């Protein structure tokens, strides 16, 4: 699944703040035609067409690493200017208001209201392939069949979506759900900010199509 070679490749920075499968993300993005750089350089991250924020491990550790790399400031500044940002796995979770792990509450980036909490399921972590239920008007999942499967690895999730948009001129966020023991937020499309709980870079052709869709918006 590659983008047309007739157009200039979009520059995507995979933000390297010490938490995430940056090499896997780099390979997946390059495979679909992006010009990819792994860096934590402030100017490069600010000026790229798209910024991808990965995340693996504990919510609190990811937030600490992100703040130390000034990633919180970069994400906020990019979004205030309508510059695309995409979060993956814990890189999605930290976009919410807070995370609670082992009784410890950590402030997130608060781009969306909500709390990341333990996933209640017979088997945790949720590790493996699963389907999702995307809105019919989703741009992120455009061109994908309803039974497309994506690769998940997580023990925590967001279980409720409370952000409402009352201004008819503003497009409401599109929220995709999945179920493992209980429903949880699997992806969000909200203006310039998109995110997935699953790993598109590990999700084969379906993940490649999804990344292609994101790059197509840059």
| Full CATH superfamily name | Class I glutamine amidotransferase (GATase) domain
Mean pLDDT: 94
CATH architecture: 3-Layer(aba) Sandwich
Query: Helical residue percent?
Result: 10-25%
Outline the low-pLDDT stretches.
Answer: none
Pfam families: GATase
EC number: 4.3.2.10, 3.5.1.2
Keywords: Amino-acid biosynthesis, Cytoplasm, Glutamine amidotransferase, Histidine biosynthesis, Hydrolase, Lyase
Subcellular location: Cytoplasm
Chain-wise SSE layout:
Layout: E1 11-15, H1 22-31, E2 35-39, H2 42-47, E3 50-53, H3 59-68, H4 71-80, E4 85-88, H5 90-93, E5 96-101, E6 104-107, E7 112-118, E8 126-131, E9 149-154, E10 156-158, E11 174-180, E12 182-190, E13 193-196, H6 204-215
Parallel strand pairs: 1-2, 1-3, 3-4, 4-13, 5-7
Antiparallel strand pairs: 5-6, 7-10, 8-9, 11-12, 12-13
EC number: 4.3.2.10, 3.5.1.2
Domain Glutamine amidotransferase: 13-213
Keywords: Amino-acid biosynthesis, Cytoplasm, Glutamine amidotransferase, Histidine biosynthesis, Hydrolase, Lyase
